[in-house]
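Reviewers of the previous submission asked for a worked example of the structure-prediction workflow described in the proposal, so we include one complete record here. The input consisted solely of the amino acid sequence. No template or homolog information was supplied to the procedure at any stage.
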Amino acid sequence: MDTGVLAEYVPELRAGRGGRIGLLALFGLAAASAVLILIDTLWPAWSGAGQVAAILLAFPWVVQFFWRRKAYLARWGDMAYRNAFARHMLPGMPLIFAAIAHNAYLPGVRVATGWTQAALFAAGLYFFSIGLVLWARAASIFGLDNLSMLYVYYPEKSRLVKSSIYALIRHPVYAGVVRVGLALGLWRGTWFSIAFGLFMPIGLTLWLRLAEERELLERFGERYADYRRSVPAFWPRFQNAGKFANFLLFGEGDERSRNEVY
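From that input alone, the workflow returned the following structure tokens.
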């Protein structure tokens, strides 16, 4: 992905040290996963609580990236995004992803056997395949600058992105994560793993309302409010199932069906 605009605000990318950022994120993911595995080993009855605690710790940490935007811009100017990302996103997001991945291996007794276990596996395979393809296609369209939320701090640098998927669901990248998380829960097959997977859309909706969509409403006003009312967040409407499948299989379809992304 092109890092042209992002590199203007992240000195490490200009200096060719972008790999260090990735290594820090991987280290955070590994450290958070290690703590969850330690809880699984020493206190297996508290495995689910540890997973929830990781989410509850990460959420207020990451949301400050949005809520403190004006203060950071006044304090740091062109370095505001870089410093805010380092303070909030870089340590917080690995916690969230570690908790989602933990859904695949947390301790517990499977609730299904026989054909019901096979059905859960098949359903998980369905959601995982769709989620992975959806995430990959949407991330490619969205671009690195948007994925890294650069335009939250510098909206004047943003570019208009149009895609047919945004006429079907508002947040296809998150929609992919929701499906993968549910698939992991179904494959693990415990009551908690399934419940956690089913709760993910609710948790992400709360995140969108308090953070991302709150900022989008500030930026675009009633225009985005109308879009939010007319297009679902993660699950396409039944009548759009064919268009959704077409996007998954072939990517961009008819140019006339494209919708702009916010």
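The first strand starts at residue 162 and ends at 163. We consider this example representative of the routine output the project will generate in years two and three.
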